[in-house]
Every structure is written in C-alpha cells, then in structure tokens.
UniProtKB/TrEMBL annotation:
Source organism of this protein record: Sorangium atrum
Protein name: RNA polymerase sigma factor SigJ
Recorded name of the encoding gene: sigJ
Domain of life from the UniProt record: Bacteria
NCBIfam families noted in UniProt: PRK09636.1, sigma70-ECF
One protein family per Pfam: Sigma70_r2
Record's subunit section: Interacts transiently with the RNA polymerase catalytic core formed by RpoA, RpoB, RpoC and RpoZ (2 alpha, 1 beta, 1 beta' and 1 omega subunit) to form the RNA polymerase holoenzyme that can initiate transcription.
Residues making up the signal peptide according to the UniProt record: none
Domain RNA polymerase sigma-70 region, residue spans: 5-70
Residue intervals of the RNA polymerase sigma factor 70 region 4 type domain: 105-156
SUPFAM superfamilies named among the record's database cross-references: NTF2-like (SSF54427), Sigma2 domain of RNA polymerase sigma factors (SSF88946), Sigma3 and sigma4 domains of RNA polymerase sigma factors (SSF88659)
C-alpha cells in the first residue's frame, strides 16, 4: 500500500509556490499531482517523495508556460500572490532559503527567468537536488541543467540588494513608512525613498485609482503614496503583518477586517528601492481565507 502522501504536502507546495508565485495555483498543482501519483502502479514507485516532486515540477512548468501567455493581456502589472509567513511555502532546505526565497522581491526576480531556469534554480539552490536528479525531472542533461542554473544565479545576483536590512530594521522602516503615509508627512516619506524608487501595483484592473504601470522616481512615488487615502473601498485600518517572510503593511476594510491591500517594501542601504502593492481581490482570497495572525 502506498504511504500517506500527505506527509509530503508542505514540500510539494513549497516547490509549486516558488515556481508559480501563486498559492491558489500551487494548491491546484499539488492536488493534481496526488491524482496522477495514485494512478501509478505501486511496484513502479521507488520514492514517493521523488516521484511527487517530479510530477509537481512538470505540472508547474506546463502551467507557467500558459500563465505567461495569459499575463501578456493582464491589466497592469502582475505581482506574486502574497501568503502568510507561517504558510507551507516556507518549507525549504535551509533557514536562508526559507525566508529569502519566498519574499515578494525574490519572487519578482524569479519571474524574469525562463521556466526551465526557474525550475533548475529552485530545485538545486533551495531543495538540494543535484543536477543529475534535476535532469531526470526536466528531461535535460546534467550539463544543460548546470548551465541553466548558472545563468539563473548570475541574473539573481545582479538583482540582489547589496545592503539588505536586518529583520528589525526592515520592520522599523515599514512602521516609519506607515506613519508617514498615515500622517500625510510627504517630506518624511520622501526621506525614506531611494532616488530611483519604483512603485508597482497589481490591481488586475479591479481597484480604481491604482497605477497600471510602474511609477518611478522619489517625488512621483511619494506624491502618489501620500494621496493613497483618496482611493476607494476605504476607509482602511492599517497594521503591520508578516507576509512572505517579511513585515508588510496591511490595509484592512474597517467594516469586515478583510485585507484590501498588501504593501511590501524592498529595502537596500537603509532606503526603500521598491514598493509593491497588491490590491487584486482575487489574489487576496487565499490570504484572507488563511488564519488571522
């Protein structure tokens, strides 16, 4: 009799979420992987975990190819779907991988890789697969996988912050950002931002007033953020929560406490170099359905 496949759910979800940047899609992939796994004769299964990992990776690659085509017609910017920091996606092979590889900033960079580069990087760097194992999963030679992994690492290294904050400093800067926005302190807000700061918002065309293209520059970004209270669907209650392994600003509806907007800050050298706001209600369903920390 096959062992309880539920034992591997955290591992499988963690791979799928990093591959897809969507908790909902990751859940669907894991469920489909179980169905396909159960159809394999027991005598052909040497390692349930390895087989399930292979199925999840291949399903994710297929879904990523089709998702990229759909995103070409997506209204505005596309950002990863946020998750609570205690979600199953944090399951990875090292403490460093647990936190950094699930941050919104990191997932945004992963989006810039080809699907195969992404699969090789995720499996090798975050889950300790060797290149021979990865080759069997993605049906490429170990040498080809090594080359894909090298290209992916080089790209990510170019994008990585040079002076990332400590968790304490990150939380304090998010708190200062929230206070500046809440009090309308435009000068204080400007002081928190890098000169070339970028603001990206994902509303899916569902949140009137959201930017539909990246907004660049300290003055332009500060001016837009400072006017955020004018946006509809308010008023909001603001609080700091732990999202994707990092502190984030959560804007909740005052009447129902549902999360309406999630704002994450990418920090380098003590200043904010990127602001990412998720306001697409479809992408916040998984977050709102989870437990309320």
């Amino acid at each position: 009799m096959k062992p309880d496949v539920e034992l591997h759910r955290r591992f499988l979800f963690a791979i799928a979420y990093r591959m897809l940047g969507s908790a909902a899609d990751a859940e669907d992939v894991v469920q489909e992987a179980y169905i396909r796994y159960l159809a394999v004769p027991e005598a052909e299964v040497e390692s349930p975990k390895a087989l399930l990992g292979t199925i999840v990776t291949r399903l994710s690659l297929n879904l990523l190819d089709s998702a990229r085509r759909r995103r070409e017609t997506y209204v505005g910017s596309w950002l990863p779907e946020p998750i609570w920091s205690d979600a199953d996606a944090l399951d990875a092979s090292s403490p460093l991988a647990r936190w950094q590889s699930v941050s919104v900033a990191f997932l945004v960079v992963l989006e810039q890789l080809s699907p195969l580069e992404r699969a090789v990087f995720v499996l090798h760097e975050l889950f300790d697969y060797d290149y021979a194992e990865i080759g069997r999963v993605v049906e490429r030679t170990p040498a080809a996988c090594r080359q894909l992994g090298s290209r992916a690492r080089e790209h990510l290294e170019r994008q990585r912050p040079r002076f990332p904050p400590t968790p304490e400093a990150h939380r304090e800067l998010v708190a200062r950002f929230a206070r500046s926005v809440g009090s309308g302190d435009l000068r204080g807000l400007v002081d928190l931002l890098a000169e070339d700061v970028v603001l990206d918002a994902d509303s899916g065309g569902r949140f009137p007033g959201a930017v539909l293209a990246p907004l660049r520059g300290r003055e332009a970004v500060a001016g837009f953020v400072a006017s955020a209270p004018r946006l509809p669907a308010g008023p909001f209650d603001a609080a700091i929560g732990d999202i994707n392994g990092e502190p984030a600003l959560l804007l909740r509806g005052r009447t129902d406490a549902a999360i309406r907007v999630v704002i994450t800050l990418e920090i380098d050298g003590g200043v904010v170099r990127a602001i990412r706001a998720m306001a697409n209600p479809d992408k916040l369903r998984w977050l709102n359905a989870g437990r309320d920390p």
